[in-house]
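Model it.
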Amino acid sequence: MAAAATTLVPATPAIAAESTSSAGIGSSVLPIGIETSFEVFDRTTGETTVAFDSHKQYRSASVVKLLIALDYLEGLGEDFRVPPEDLAQLQPMLRSSDDTAASYFWVKNGWEEIVERMVAKLDLTDTAPPADRGQWGYTAISASDVVKIYRYILDDASPQVRSIIMDNLRQSTKCGNDGFDQYFGIARAAPPPWAIKQGWSGFGDAPSIPCTPANPLPPDPFDEAPVQADNAATPDVLADVSQDGIPSVSARDSTESAGPDIDVNKAAMHTTGTLGEDNDTIVVVLTLEPSNTSWDESAQRISLITKGVLGASSLDILASS
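Modeled.
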């Protein structure tokens, strides 16, 4: 039987040292300046097993690619076949978090209208389009809404849509398209099988030491040779969309509003996905860290947080100032 949902005061959370030794997490896992929200949902019982500040809004970074993919696929109608030129964008967007591919679909399918359609269809309460339509990475999300997105994909979407999205997430590459190592959070905290969609923002355009090994374009899920779309980076497709759907530092500094209650200055790192062959457990952990936090430090911290969250049924999760 699943543990009862944990209700916490929205303050800086810490995990009691005496309860976390087995999980390898100390009481200093969340020093001052670190923010996190999380939710874990057990699909076998239909219960939320643990949650903290799960309606707090964060900028989505690449997690919004779940909505971009879902909106695109459901727009194809019934018994569809993904055109090869779109498949060449969809696969790396989901598996390797390709930003150019996300911008391709963002513009192709109506910019902020994608988010608006998904909010209405999935009854998302905390998700909102970015204030600047060219910045898809500034879509507002919450841990609670991301759980809803996965629940819709797994329980309500057509088998074909579900298969395409989840099969690609299950084949997520170690190295993101931009060279960052996206095996953090769920990928470090839980044994496979898992399916993940990660998100990050505020760590620069590329890591100082690129992730290895480099990952080629994944194979076609329809067992056909993938076709590279030759128009993915043309100005008319990517007009007004910055490198990763997120503005440069100078543009960010001049942004007056990036959506409701969203911090756009701290570094963001998010881990989302499912555990098990049957995707029985949905896990969402969202974090914000000081802007000078290194990639390795942030990746290590969210991995430790995720490990603690996954063991929350046997841990005392406390709220402290």
